Amino acid sequence: MEVVNPRSALLSNYEVLALLRELDSDHLAKTKTALRIKKEEEQSGKPTPNATAIEEEICENLRTVEVEALQYLTAEYQPIAAQSDAGITKLVKDIEPYGFTKAEKLQIVNLAPTEPVELYVIVEELEDRLGERMEEVLSHVRASLDPNALPASTAEGSSNGADPNPADPAALQVEEKITTEVYEAETWIQDTNYIEWDDGGEGAGVEGDLEMDEE
Amino acid sequence: MFQLSIIKDTLPILPAAFALPPEQALTAAINKKYANRVLHDVGLCIAVFDLVSASEGRVRYGDGCLWYKVTFRMVVFRPFAGEVLLARVKSSDEDGIRLTLGFFDDMYVPPAYLPQPSAFDPNERAHFWLADAGPEQGTHELLDSPVAARMYIDKGEVVRVRVEMDEFYDDEPGPPKASEGVRVEREQRRPPYTVTCSIAEQGLGPTSWWKAAEAVLEGEGEEMDQG
């Protein structure tokens, strides 16, 4: 093995996602064909000689990294759900005149900053370089995102967590799970406290605490 | 975060795969060898991007394989220094925070790169940041602070981090020495690729902090305008 060029180009998350999706659908199609051939074999009762040749061995390592990377890239805190080919091409053209470096542009595409504080961590000396034009950059980013998919991506991490967005039931389910888990943990802690304090003969104060927590 | 690396290698194709078109068989062979593997000083390989060139397959004496000299482009995970990433908190302990991206979880935030002043709460098993405290306060004073004022970095939270540096270790054990006899002693092996991140900066850390902070700032601004 010889590494000719360790970094010939940088890829955006969106490009990697597109490649992984392609691999994933290829894999699914192959599994389906394999299954279909198997079924046909069973029905006809005689093994087809070609079946084993078509059935390509599945590479475990590739599947692992592919599925895990897909999960990371499509997580609800990534802006990728709202991005599109055309949107990104336009965004890159729009932010051309601001004099960003290549790395900064890549990160603007990857993270799609819509808040000043998000842009602040990506671009060095943001105020000196952009000044008043910062808001223009943010509006370019907002324009590049698909507004229909936006609520799901911007609602992430909000402290109240209640996002009545029917478009993303999976995310909602996850949130519900988290809250129930937290609730269970809390009651457990309260229970242990209660027993401890009851032994010490100071139950009254704890009851008061419990009432506070329940409110 | 991801990059393309050009790599050259000589690979065998087993006779079982001769029925496939060569480029397909080669891609499968490369993925089998490289996917989810850390290459020293290159990064974590994800998948083949495309093939650049390949020689004619040659049969060597001794096996029935076709050997191809192939140059290909690989998608590699290797965030550059200074890059900002989104990650989840995997676990926390006294030595810092461990982060995960799902497919890669050897990412660490050492205590020095936590927002100051911060301390580790052994009861909650989480680090917290006390934004209002002065820098001269010690760990004991920080732990005496009211819980409501602490900003915890909890497990599972999404954090924005800046990559500070990355390190590769090649800890392959050498062949066992005859004089040592058979020892079943395994020393702790370092992960082959670790990324050190920082959240000690404005705008970094749990994304919820900055969402909340922004709302407060805007609220204050409106109040001041009204006043």
TrEMBL record, chain A:
It comes from the Eukaryota. Residues 148-177, 191-215 are annotated as: Disordered. One of its GO terms (cellular component) is RNA polymerase III complex. Pfam families: RNA_pol_Rpb4. GO terms for molecular function: nucleotide binding. It is found in: Nucleus. InterPro entries: HRDC-like_sf, RNA_pol_Rpb4/RPC9_core, Rpb4/RPC9, Rpb4/RPC9_sf, RPC9. Residues 162-171 have a biased composition (Low complexity). Keywords: DNA-directed RNA polymerase, Nucleus, Transcription. Its main location: nucleus. Residues 1-148 form the RNA polymerase Rpb4/RPC9 core domain. Transmembrane segments: none annotated. One of its GO terms (biological process) is transcription initiation at RNA polymerase III promoter. Belongs to the eukaryotic RPC9 RNA polymerase subunit family. This is DNA-directed RNA polymerase III subunit RPC9. The lineage of its organism: Eukaryota, Fungi, Dikarya, Basidiomycota, Agaricomycotina.
UniProtKB/TrEMBL annotation, chain B:
Signal peptide: none annotated. PANTHER family: DNA-DIRECTED RNA POLYMERASE II, III (PTHR12709), DNA-DIRECTED RNA POLYMERASE III SUBUNIT RPC8 (PTHR12709:SF1). It holds the Pfam family RNA_pol_Rbc25. InterPro entries: NA-bd_OB-fold, RNA_pol_III_Rbc25, RNA_pol_Rpb7-like_N_sf, Rpb7-like, Rpb7-like_N. Residues 83-210 form the RNA polymerase III subunit Rpc25 domain. SUPFAM superfamilies: N-terminal, heterodimerisation domain of RBP7 (RpoE), Nucleic acid-binding proteins. Keywords: DNA-directed RNA polymerase, Nucleus, Transcription. One of its GO terms (cellular component) is RNA polymerase III complex. It is found in: Nucleus. This is Polymerase III polypeptide H. It comes from Gloeophyllum trabeum (strain ATCC 11539 / FP-39264 / Madison 617) (Brown rot fungus). The keyword Lipid metabolism does not apply. Belongs to the eukaryotic RPB7/RPC8 RNA polymerase subunit family. Residues 8-64 form the RNA polymerase Rpb7-like N-terminal domain. Gene3D superfamilies: Nucleic acid-binding proteins, RNA polymerase Rpb7-like, N-terminal domain. One of its GO terms (biological process) is transcription initiation at RNA polymerase III promoter.
